[in-house]
Request: fold
Amino acid sequence: MSADNAKKSTKAEQFMKCDLMQELDFLVARMRSLGSGRANLALKPFGLKVRSYSVLSLACSEVMPTQRDLAEFLALDPSQIVPLVDGLEAKSLVIRMADPNDRRSKVVVATDAGKKLYGKARKATEQSEQETLKALTPGERTQLRDLLSRVVLDESA
Reply:
């Protein structure tokens, strides 16, 4: 181990003793920061960032979300969603179309080009996730995903 790595390891061990390491909100936020940073690097070749990728992913789903749905599910202000959708629309990756259930509302739907790009970007984010979660076994990753999904779904209800 190099001197720099040994110093980082010692510093990390010191931080592990802090009360902050017992706070789940902090740990989840820190993991999100690490994961988002890696994901943004992985998404850069596709002209996407985590937020635009999230919108594209939902636009590729069967959900057919409105911009309001996107804002609520992604916990973003509606004013943040508009430029994300505009940017994806400018790249011909999504379109806004009339909601089949409410013609007064618009849904965001991926184009064929958007679906194709999403497929490639998803592979890149999966690799990025593997790096972020490398300290966990596959079973622990599944358990973490299940637990976080329960929290997210409970909050979304």
About this structure: The longest strand covers residues 102-110. The chain is about 70% helix and 10% strand. The beta strands are 94-99, 102-110.
